[in-house]
Design brief:
Number of helices of chain B: 7
Strand order of the largest sheet of chain B: 1-2-3-6-5-4
Largest interface: A-B, 59 and 64 residues
Oligomer: heterodimer
Structural class of chain A: alpha+beta
Helix content of chain A: 10-25%
Order of helices and strands of chain B: HHHEEEEEEEEEEEEEEHHEEHEEHEE
Largest sheet of chain A: 8 strands, mixed
Distance between the termini of chain B: 73 Å
Chain lengths: 658, 357
């Protein structure tokens, strides 16, 4: 059996699955009981095509999830012995895979290919040749509300296990999945969701519209929500899939607003060698149509691309300066990483740039020897133009720089503070540099001794929808003027000692202008996947409550909190701009999000001096730098000591450097 | 499931509704306690596909406060008039000037808050639209029986992205019961019966969702999350529309308009909770319902008969839903003035007059 980080779930799930078959009929009319008999027959009909899969060896733990290799389910897709199952069945990378045949024999299978867009894997088991391929329910006939039975072969190799539900929605997860309220879980991942006629609607998998992680969506088991990949689609792709992996098709554009609401969909950046770049899409273009579907908001684009694989061709229409232009391009599996081309400046803090009312970006600090140092730009000057285009805010500055690569020249216009507000625009050319991941220099400070207890207040952050709270350290000198940065500290699970938090972080909070938030865990013994979204929401609230510049938000992971901090930073990359890990490298299983011009994640690893200077760390840094990610290993004599926290404070304040 | 095309569906539905009303008048007057629920079920149930198709057009997705800033604030609402009235659960999601409202076909509207009722914690929003499909509240006036088939239509987990319609779950009514005296219901001002279902509806985004019966009528509104902390159990429940009807009518009639205190000047010597001798349950989130925590001995509150656990509904004629609103309203009232509080005590409403001497 599978083992989960929440004990008792297996038992609960089994009871629920069994209970459901008996719970309904008591008060239902005879017709409904007949419908129930139909459901059972439908499930039995597909049974000969549903096999049990066993695995041997492999990892015990994937990310934050413990997985003890247990049986899973697969469905026959060809009479040559091809079997489809969920990626979940092999996520622990087993050393061997066995298929239980109807005659009770176990027969070895090999992985043919993966479908990384739909979280499926194709297995080949020669001895399974000749097993019947079930009929696919045509997608065009599916209707929301129709009955469906999820079939697995997990608890007993001789018998199928079932869970009855209805089709809850079509066209979910960007068009890739069908939603059901049958209990989708490891009991039937890789199995079949069948209709009343025993036709296969789809293959149950963990999948989520919010994340592309392999196990995303797993946390929804037994929550009244589950997804299946349409079987008709799978059979349609089989020829291609049986010779190579299928990957999500990428276009290579970054929208100006990645929320779900902004209209129209304006492109902020285009990968130069990406499918969008090679056909000439440019920043400022508005995407209005893909494959005949109208595009108004970012989700429309994700829907239009969601069903498409790398290597497939799309046709689209853009609007450029009021003119409609069409394009045709082949989607790619990988987009070359976006590399930030920087000016070497740190903008002055503004809580909400759009509301500041004055155009341009005030420069707070300039990198010594950086791209604009030679131009004579000074702290306090205001950058108002990039490449001839006026810029109003830090986000616009980022967008204006997005088309450029490090090493390229760009014309900059600025007004000097000494000229006064009506000063003329000075212009000069700068050679852009890669974004430095290094620490800003330490500020010159008074010798005043800061007592955290008297100079910081302890507060509580509580949202009504969550029982879990956060402790917050707020310096007495706090003012909601946007000059404070937000540091979210994730340490050991369990009760946070607020006094100790203040004692540790107080000096950095006062000196570097930080609001320090420490979320509590739901379970005292461990951090859980469900903590991620909750903490992300609490971070969002803290940003609003304390008028934080959303570009200056970092999450700090320490000890047992490092993995969760990394998950929050990668999953909630819209709210977190910096990931600082104290005394640890990147936890295994963490995949960093792709760099985007406006929403980029910087990473700082504060490591013991002897660790920071080793080959594995250098390789980790180099590999991520190649992906365009600003990452630095910062040696510290004693990671976690006050000096480290001061450095993290300064680093967080400089996360919006350009 | 077979789909039958029926151009005359609306007419049939009305006829059935009349029939249902008739059945229920008979049932209610003659056999109140004894009639088995099979009587209801013997009417041929409409196929779920058909119920769903119709009910889905009357459910909306709501995205509110913080939605644009990366905060995941979303829930569900139901259309209850052809003029764009949206019934939903009162929650933090509505803390915004306008609430982005998506119809099942992806059309977007900006809704404004019409009013809310702290007694039931429901709210009604209004979108600027005409002729929309909607649930008819007169068909919602019965509380379902345990064992009945129900459908739940909700915006659960925010998985309905972009133009996608709400999710549909099926289940049965597990129980209809009051939560009074139950630890799980201790935080609810609402004291009437709730519909407990075996459809898992207690999830992010579901509050304000529709519980629909086998005739397609709206019988319940999914309430805010309720969890028994000690047992770590979430309750899947809905508030019966029949029990909310007075609340809905009061809001629609404009009796529960929001107090926009910011428009009124503060006074130099304002009334305070301390002067009145009341402590309210600490306000840590900005919308803790204004429950009285303690009453000081010999205070104006004690003289007027205010008791711990009273819920303050009105301060004078001002509707209040949170401790901070009570404080704001008080700051606009002079401390020598006579103060009238409307309180909910258990299921009763009590009016008291307070005066500081």
């Amino acid at each position: 059996m599978m083992r989960f980080d929440r004990p008792g779930n297996v038992a609960i799930r089994t009871i629920c699955a069994a209970g459901l078959l008996f719970a309904l009929p008591a008060s239902m009319p005879i017709a409904a009981q007949e419908e129930f008999a139909v459901l059972r027959r439908a499930a039995e009909q597909v049974a000969p095509s549903v096999v049990q899969i066993e695995t041997i060896g492999g990892r015990e733990r994937v990310g934050d999830l413990f997985i003890a290799a247990g049986p899973s389910t697969g469905v026959v897709v060809s009479d040559r012995g091809l079997i489809v199952t969920s990626l979940f069945s092999i996520v622990h990378e087993p050393t061997s895979i066995l298929v239980r045949l109807p005659n009770g024999n176990r027969s070895p299978a090999r992985i043919v290919s993966r479908d990384l867009a739909r979280n499926l894997v194709l297995l080949e088991c020669p001895d399974a040749a000749g097993l019947p391929v079930p009929i696919a329910a045509p997608e065009s006939e599916l209707q929301v509300g129709q009955f469906a039975v999820a079939v697995g072969r997990v608890h007993d190799a001789e018998r199928i296990n079932t869970s009855v539900g209805i089709v809850s929605a079509l066209d979910r997860v960007w068009g890739k999945a069908i939603q059901t309220d049958a209990k989708i879980s490891p009991s039937n991942y890789g199995g079949a969701l069948v209709d009343l006629q025993g036709r296969v609607i789809g293959i149950p998998v963990p999948i989520s519209p919010q994340s592309e992680e392999q196990l995303a969506g797993f946390e929804w088991y037994d929550s009244g929500i589950g997804f299946v990949i349409p079987f008709e689609t799978i059979l349609g792709h089989l020829d291609r899939w049986s010779v190579k992996d299928l990957r999500p098709g990428k276009l290579g554009v970054t929208p100006k607003a990645s929320d779900n609401f902004t209209e129209p969909l304006e492109v902020a950046a285009v990968g130069r060698l990406s499918p969008a770049g090679v056909v000439g899409l440019m920043p400022g273009d508005r995407i209005v149509e893909i494959d005949g579907r109208p595009i108004r908001r970012f989700p429309d684009l994700k829907h239009a691309l969601g069903r498409r694989y790398a290597g497939e061709t799309i046709v689209g229409v853009i609007e450029r300066q009021g003119e409609r232009m069409s394009f045709e391009t082949e989607l790619a599996a990988e987009i070359e990483p976006f590399r930030v081309a920087a000016l070497g400046i740190e903008p002055a803090a503004v809580s909400d740039p759009a509301e500041a009312g004055i155009a341009g970006v005030v420069v707070e600090r300039i990198d010594d020897g950086g791209p604009v140092a030679a131009l004579g730009i000074n702290a306090g000057d205001r950058i108002v133009e990039i490449a001839g285009a006026a810029i109003a805010s830090t986000d616009e500055l980022a967008t204006a720089l997005a088309p450029f690569a490090p090493g390229e020249n760009v014309e900059i216009g600025w007004t000097a503070a000494i000229d006064g507000p009506a000063g003329t625009i000075r212009r000069g050319t700068a050679t852009l540099a890669p974004l430095a991941a290094t620490l800003p220099p330490p500020p010159i400070e008074t010798a005043e001794v800061i007592d955290p207890e008297t100079s910081c207040e302890l507060k509580e952050l509580r949202l009504e929808q969550f029982p879990e709270t956060c402790d917050v350290v707020v310096p007495n000198r706090f003012a909601p003027d946007g000059s404070f940065a937000l540091v979210v500290v994730v340490g050991a699970p369990g009760k946070v000692d607020a006094e100790k938090l203040r004692e540790r972080w107080g000096v950095a909070a006062v000196r570097d202008g930080l609001i320090v938030v420490a979320p509590h865990s739901t379970d005292e013994r461990r951090w859980q996947r469900t903590d991620v979204e909750r903490i992300a929401t609490q971070i969002g609230q803290a940003i609003i409550d304390y008028g934080i510049d959303p570009r200056r938000v970092a999450i700090v992971g320490e000890g047992p909190g490092a993995a969760l901090a990394a998950l929050i930073a990668t999953d909630a990359s819209r709210t977190v701009r910096g990931l600082a890990l104290i005394g640890s490298g990147l936890p295994p299983g963490v995949s960093l999000p792709e760099n985007e011009p406006i929403r980029r994640l910087s990473i700082g690893l504060w490591l013991a001096t002897d660790v920071a200077d080793t080959d594995p760390v250098r390789q980790l840094v180099k590999a991520n730098e190649e992906r365009g990610i600003a990452i630095a290993a910062i040696p510290s004599p004693k990671p976690g000591e006050p000096e480290t926290l001061r450095e993290i404070g300064r680093w967080t304040q400089s996360l919006d450097r350009h | 499931m077979r789909r039958t095309d029926r151009p005359d569906r609306t007419i049939r539905r009305l006829d059935r509704a009349r029939l249902m009303t008739f059945v229920w008048v008979v049932v209610a007057s003659a056999f109140v306690t004894t009639v088995p629920n099979l009587l209801v079920a013997q009417e041929r149930p409409r196929p779920i596909v058909e119920l769903t198709a119709s009910a889905r057009t009357k459910v909306v997705k709501l995205f509110g406060a913080g939605g644009a800033k990366g905060l995941e604030a979303y829930q569900t609402g139901v259309l209850i008039s052809d003029e764009g009235h949206v019934l939903t659960a009162w929650s933090h999601v509505l803390d915004a000037d306008t609430v982005a409202t998506f119809l099942d076909d992806g059309q977007r509207y900006e809704a404004t808050l019409l009013g809310y009722d702290p007694r039931t914690e429901i709210a009604i929003l209004k979108i600027d639209a005409q002729g929309l499909p909607h649930f008819v509240l007169d068909e919602s006036m019965r509380v379902p029986e345990p064992g009945e088939l129900i459908l739940a239509l909700t915006n659960l987990y925010g998985v309905a992205t972009g133009n996608e319609p709400a999710s549909v779950q099926h289940g049965t009514v597990t129980a209809v019961r009051s939560l009074e005296g139950d630890r799980i219901g201790g935080r609810l001002p609402y004291r009437g019966p709730v519909i407990v279902t075996d459809a898992i509806t207690s999830n992010p985004g579901t509050p304000g969702g529709a519980i629909v019966d086998a005739s397609g009528n709206l019988l319940g509104l999914v309430g805010k999350d309720l969890k028994a902390d000690d047992a770590d159990i979430w309750l899947n429940y809905a508030l019966p529309i029949a029990e909310l009807r007075r609340s809905i009518d009061d809001i629609l009639a404009g009796k529960l308009l929001l107090a926009f205190e910011e428009d009124r000047p503060e006074v130099s010597e304002p009334m305070t909770l301390e002067l009145l001798g009341m402590e309210l349950v600490p306000d840590v989130v900005g919308r803790t319902p204004p429950f009285v925590d303690r009453v000081a001995r010999g205070s104006a509150a004690e003289r007027a008969g205010v008791r711990p656990d009273d819920l303050i509904l009105f301060v004078d004629d001002r509707l209040v839903a949170s401790r901070s609103q009570v404080e704001t309203v008080l700051s606009r009232i002079h401390r020598d003035d006579l103060l009238v509080l409307t309180l909910q005590r258990g299921t009763a409403t009590v009016t008291v007059e307070l005066e500081i001497r």
